[in-house]
Amino acid sequence: MFPFFKMEEKEHVLEVLENVKKALRKKDYIEIKNLSDKVIHISSIHQDSNVISVAVIIYALSKLIERKNYQTEKNWNDFYVNYLRNIDDMIVALRKDNLKKFHDEIQENRELIQGLSGNLKIYIQDVFSRAKVNKASRIYEHGISMEKTAKILGISLWELAEYAGKTGIGDVNFAVTMPIKKRIKFAEEVFG
Amino acid sequence: MKSLIFDSGPIINFAMNGLLPLLEELQKKFKGDFLITKEVKSEIIDRPLTIKRFQLQAFQIKELFRKGVIKHADITPKQVNELRKIREHLMQVANNTFKIKKRYVHLIDKGESAALALSSILPNNPPLVVDERTTRMLCENPNNLKKLMEKKLHTSIKPNTGNYSYFEKFKIIRSTELMYIAYKKGLCKIKDKGVLEAALYGLKFKGCSISEDEIQEIVRTM
User: Fold this and answer.
1) Which among B111, B173, B213 has CB closest to A147?
2) How far is A10 from chain B (nearest CA, A)?
């Protein structure tokens, strides 16, 4: 689907991607991870599939840099160079307000992974699959329902529930909406 | 016949914790129907049957469905149409409740809305079993959901407070409260006192939105 987002969103995504490039020079994967969360704020509101893909691409990049064991795999160098070029091309497309080209570059990123083979393909697919679940958990944390979030990211509710349960989402004070005694009393009445 | 309407989360949660036999025992004690919508069936059986990691649990849930422990509501074609209309309406209302910078935030989806709609069309609006946070907060305290989202999104939200009343009639039970009932009724095969706490944490860690303080309070009530 052709991407549609407003100028404000475009500027935000562009700024994040430019900061990713800066963080890349220092191989600062923690900063890159934080930048992917900045995209999540806007993704939670607008739920644009391309913007969400950018969050996944950035988070996956942080993992690729963090875990050096991928880097000894055959074809790693070519893949990494193309991955960075792909991000550069997204930046250029956004600077030129060419949203179709930006959309094409997101698609290009998917094709990059599809084009891999052997262990590297398995590793990278795993990184992306985990990145999707991580970003889904963040969107759920921002107040979007579990089902809606799973649908946006194209993951199953099972994966999301399993991951989100390990975070502190249930411990947020606002989420305690009824005294526990009242809940138990109600449950007992239902089964009474 | 009384009934309880299940969202996907609690059944997934019971399955991932190996607690499905307890669900069957609970249904017997309940002396009523444990209902699911077709959207929920798709999420708890049809889809995970295609994912190797969750296939075993999906088969176990499918068996519960075959035995009638969980079932579809016995409703007429006319009620099916009504359910569909209410589902779409509730989804539209929910997703036009919070506005951020001139845009409404899409909060819930078809499955969650369908479970609420089913409760709407059945006599006495049966309670729903829901583990996920957003739908529960929308029903129990939408203003807290607004505050939570404002805090997380670092922006102000303009609410359509008139929409809140659409959801206040729905009563929610979580998987953790079902676990409490199962323990209290002696349905757990392991009689160790620590089992309840362990099971509550198990359910929390597989997606039930419950705080540690709430778990401790439940344990203290025993």
Assistant:
1) B111
2) 15
